[in-house]
# Entry
Amino acid sequence: MVSRERVVKVLKAVELYGRQHPYMWNVSWENGSLLKTLVLAKGAERVLEVGTSDGFSTIWLAWAASIVGGRVITVEMDAERVAMASRNLAEADLADYVEQVIGNAKIKLPGLQGEFDFVFLDAAKSEYLSYFDAVRGKLARGALVVADDAITERESMLGYLNAVENDPELESALISIDDGIEITYVR
# Structure
């Protein structure tokens, strides 16, 4: 059983580091908590994250995965960030719940096997549609896809937002929390 106190301690340290180094592009505490809650509510056993950074959101996702008996696959192209996330996950005692994939998501995503119950997009905003297209056929029925920065980076994400908001096989909603998130349900 993962220690809540340990995870929260690591999250606070990573959050502080992220504030001091804004190029880490971490989600807010509220968004992290929402991600955890959504994974728990969904009972998502196969979670995919695109954009690991220093592992702040990965910790939230892995924490939920540890509770539901799931696993997170996270894709990040920056090897230094992968190493940092790896250390943070180990410190939170969550490394066993995460598989880190190093490389460009557009190249790596098509090769991932199996279906996903939950996908979190938080990488190059202009590439969200490419990421989504790469995993569309790997989304389990009833899967959730959460896209970060849907308000502050709306212009960069227009292709993606138009696609998910106008697809009859999807149900999508914009949530005005922090920088905005688009939550999409796969019917």
